[in-house]
Specification:
By secondary structure, the protein is of the alpha+beta class. The protein is built from eleven helices and 15 strands. β8 and β9 form a beta hairpin.
């Protein structure tokens, strides 16, 4: 039997199609050079790749409102955290219950890092063609879903103000450089926090409500996060003196900040936030909702293809962070 004959037979079966949604603008656009390789690898396994240029929300609405889910094995999302966020929101909107595979090609790729998704294209393909997937929670801020992080405060504008050309040239360091330049302009924001676990009125510079564990290239922002526990990790960086920023920065790098006197850290499955000010918000790199905010979590809502994380000793982890600080 010829390859074409076998392909015709197999693609008539259920779940022989794969939807590939890619952002051509993520990172430096390098993903596009691998498109033919991906199609070839999946075709060799009898799967028909349906590529969709995912830069338009309108296009995703059309695709998901017309898709025959029973014909598809999975959805591949190629892009950064923002691309993953847009696709997941479209999936939730139309009730699409298909497992996803993530091909990280953005600037930060925080969620892909948390899920231990490899960065080498052949390894990504192997994970997507495998049979291992994990259930993951999906968080919700008002009417907007997210899978990694919601951020609030004066530092939120950093990602939106960072020059896209600079991001594509030097990657995550662009965020760090922009963030440092914004420190002198910080002002404390009054905020009311309400949950079953913790209620308090505080003045804060910045806060995150994490579903994942990594944000803005900082790999241990939520060191106790578990995307399968049905809980969100709330981290508030309170008003502090400027000299206290530097030691806190290094504590965040190492994941030791939950015990800092200027940090509030707790877990919850429902959270309410209010503020008399107009507070900037961000979800997975995209513009967020306006205050007041209501956070909830959908337990084990997504299926994600993954690779088993390697065993890492505490000494190896510490050495990685020492190297990050040195460079």
């Amino acid at each position: 039997m010829s390859e074409i004959e076998r392909y015709k037979i197999e693609t008539n079966d259920e779940q022989r199609k794969v939807l590939l949604i890619y952002n051509p603008n993520s990172g430096n656009g390098m993903f596009l050079r691998y498109l033919d390789l991906i199609i070839s690898k999946f075709q060799d396994r009898g799967f028909l790749i349906r590529p969709v240029r995912g830069a338009s929300g309108e296009m995703l609405d059309y695709v998901f409102s017309h898709i025959h889910v029973e014909q598809y094995r999975q959805i591949i999302i190629a892009g950064g955290d923002g691309t993953v966020n847009i696709v997941v929101n479209a999936m939730m909107k139309y009730g699409i219950d298909l497992p996803i595979a993530i091909f990280p090609s953005g600037t930060a790729n925080d969620f892909a890092y948390y899920m231990n998704i490899p960065h080498e294209i052949n390894q990504m393909i192997d994970v997507a063609l495998g049979d291992e997937f994990v259930y993951a929670d999906v968080a919700k801020m008002n009417d907007k879903y997210y899978i990694n992080v919601a951020a609030m405060g004066t530092l939120v504008d950093v990602s939106q103000k960072t020059d896209p050309n600079l991001k594509n040239t030097i990657g995550i360091m662009a965020y760090y450089l922009k963030g440092i330049s914004e420190i002198p302009n910080l002002h404390a924001i009054p905020i009311s926090i309400k949950s079953k676990e913790h209620t308090e009125d505080v003045e804060m510079y910045f806060m995150v409500v994490m579903n994942g564990g990594s944000a803005g290239g900082f790999r241990r922002v939520a060191p106790e996060s578990d995307i399968r526990d049905g809980l969100l990790d709330v981290i508030v960086f309170k008003k502090m003196l400027l000299p206290e920023f530097a030691p806190l920065f290094f504590e965040v790098l190492a994941g030791h900040h939950p015990h800092n006197k200027n940090v509030l850290y707790f877990k919850t499955d429902e959270l309410f936030l209010e503020s008399p000010e107009d507070v900037s918000t961000d979800v997975d790199g995209e513009k967020g909702e306006k205050f007041p905010l209501h956070f909830t979590v959908l337990h084990n809502k997504l299926k994600i293809f993954y690779s088993e994380p390697p065993e890492i000793t505490e000494e190896e982890l510490a050495e990685r962070y020492r190297h990050r600080v040195m460079v």
